[in-house]
Amino acid sequence: MSKPFMRGVTYAQDMVRLYQFPRNAHIPNMSPFCLKLETFLRHAGIKHEAICSLDNWKKGKEGKFPWIELNGQPYHDSDFIMQKLTNHFKLDHLEADLTDEQKGTTRAVLKMVEQSLFETALYNRFMENLETFLTVGRVKIPMKSLLMPFVKYFLHRKIHTRMEGVGLGRHTREEIYSIAKTDVKALSQLLGDKQFFFGDKPHNIDIIVWSVLAESYYMPWDNMIKGYIKDSKNLDGFMGRMKQHFWPDWEEITAKPKKNAQNKEDRGAS
């Protein structure tokens, strides 16, 4: 067995250790990329352990979540991790029923959702609803309350700088939400009257789309993007089907107290 990347860690062969942000009272993870990867692990039936703690944020090579350890080796970036796991566990059968056109659509939708729509969701969360996100959203930041104003300022400036870097920050509020509305409409048109994007069973495209939409949809306050999803009745239904299919333990995960700082959760193949 390979030497563990994390010192003092013992694990079973081929057990995936998923390092990600702490659980939240409203959604299993506040990062769409963490949510996507954990949902993929469930979809693939891979035995894994979710370690939901900020303690491991900077320990990964890229200094951000999510990242995994598999047989002593760390892997980073949710897309590269999914490809690694697909190759390692020989999971090509999960997408084997798709045509080349559908595989191309998956790639195109991934880029639209995780770049265009995701950036507007960041604006929605951090530029317009930061105070609500940290309070009503029950986001736990381990520091003294006196420092919270500085945390809010830092997050706001960080996202503003990011927005400027990707070009979104040069748009008006109306233009930003127009982009979000157009993206959501495109997803609704692509889904049509199907249960999932490619028929009656979920594929990677469904996990990708759902994970980004979920970060606005499941927040316990009204927001523009959540409204666009609910106005698209087929997407509204899709959100519920995905939650029921992959997260039957949603209420348990989001409601139970987190007494263990590491918040370790073992999930077997299903």
Automatic annotation (TrEMBL):
InterPro entries: FAX/IsoI-like, Glutathione-S-Trfase_C_sf, Glutathione_S-Trfase, Metaxin_GST, Mito_Protein_Transport_Metaxin, Thioredoxin-like_fold, Thioredoxin-like_sf. Residues 180-242 form the Metaxin glutathione S-transferase domain. It comes from the Eukaryota. Residues 32-128 form the Thioredoxin-like fold domain. One of its GO terms (cellular component) is cytoplasm. Pfam families: GST_C_6, GST_N_4. Belongs to the FAX family. This is Glutathione S-transferase. It comes from Plectus sambesii.
